[in-house]
Amino acid sequence: MSNSKQTTTCQDEYDPNSLDVIEARKRIKQMLTTATETENIAIREALDRTLAEDVLSSINVPAYTNSAMDGYAIAGDDIENIKLFSLVGTALAGKPYNNSVKSGECIRIMTGAPICKGVDTVIMQEHVEVNADQISLLGTHKVGQNVREKGEDLAQGSPAIFAGRRLTPSDIGLLASLGISKVNVIRKIRVTILSTGDELKNVGEVLGEGQIYDSNRYTIYCMLHRIGVDITDLGIIKDNPEDIRTAFEHASKNADVIITSGGVSVGDADFVKQTLEELGTVNFWKIAMKPGRPLAVGQIKNAYFFGLPGNPVSAMVTFYQFIQPAIREIMGQTHFENPSIQLKCISKLKKRPGRIEFQRATIITSETGEKVVKTTGNQGSHVLSSMSEANCFIILPMESGNVEVNSLVEVQPFDGLL
Ligand code: AMP
Ligand code: MG
Q: Are strands 294-300 and 303-308 parallel, antiparallel or unpaired?
């Protein structure tokens, strides 16, 4: 990356009315309130939903001390003193050995079987020599080894999962391991989407002169689907103030969030921001970023409004960087962040100071086995194929200029949403 501190003189890149990304995120966060209504649902249905209250463990996990291995249970004190152990019984998972074991004795024990009175140590079956009903130990052993203590995973009364958590498959398993069948989660968020543009056609229709297929409603729908919201799709709205107003009024009655694409620039047919201003409030509408400078953020009645840019890559990038965190915030998912790492970039990158850039790239393994990042090439905001090829963004800060080969760059791997 260029080290010389460059001033933001390029007129095309620098716009004094644009917010920087951090300020824009802050303004969005301040505007939002989290949904508080909850519902009580079966744990399998709760995957990807937000846990509404802390879940405390009502039991010890494991509920009883048990063996972590298939082998033989003995008293730890016998390790040094006893050469031959007599086999007096067997403990299986679900079939405990009910007597107590005396010094010099052992029981056959399987993984998950309860540890009985008199023993505290399990010797793996690979580490014993068996002679009829006597065993001797091979190698060295520690007192208490291969035993899972009662409550070692979760002690009774301790918090198992905290409110605000987006529930993962392991969380659902954890709830099941506590015997919990239903949980309280935040209600589903309702999102209404629409595209604006006289040039747009639905898939399946025949394209006329100067027309293109509407792809934004597909990328946006799919990303929303992965976040896990209820989606209403109002289709394609023509570029005229009346149709746009009618659609926005309709959407604001039923939705928590309205997401549009197109019509937010300053072109002759860009009525989105103007209509937002008429029906509600505009919080801001320009961010110093590339792709995706125009992003109209505001509110109409009780619905939050996000007017994404029309270019397909700009729409996806702004969604990923701003709308995804915003929706998760409304869903009550605390501490959400798109993680990033530093990697060596093996491509030369073009960049002019003035805006933060999210360049499409792929993380690959170099010949020496090192993870490095490589550009997908053409960064035009209409080039959806390079979005599809990419598996990460390279984030180049506002003041950065061109990036030389082998510079360290900030890389944000796609997290399964894109
Ligand atoms: P706009 O923001 O309306 O000026 O649109 C910018 C560019 O994105 C134009 O080339 C549009 O044709 C294109 N575009 C707008 N909406 C969509 C959409 N839903 N799907 C694909 N391309 C779009
Ligand atoms: Mg348009």
A: antiparallel
- Closest residue by Cα to residue 314 from 361, 382, 258: 382
Q: Is 219 in the pocket of ligand 1 (CB under 6 A)?
A: no
Which runs of consecutive H residues, i.e. helices, occur in 108-215? 169-177
**SS3 label, residue 317:** helix
Could you list which residues have their CB under 5 Å from ion ligand 2?
197, 262-263, 310
Is 303 part of a structural domain of the chain?
Answer: yes
pTM of the model: 0.89
pLDDT of residue 4: 42
Q: Please tell me what DSSP assigns to residue 8.
A: -
The finding on whether 199 has its CB within 6 A of some atom of ligand 1 is: yes
Positive or negative: CA dihedral 244, 247, 248, 249:
positive
- Note down the domain range covering 172: 38-58+165-186
Same domain, 179 and 42: yes
Say if residue 176 is in the same domain as residue 287. Answer: no
State residue 251's pLDDT score. 98
- Terminal alpha carbon distance of the chain: 27
Per-residue pLDDT, 184 = 98
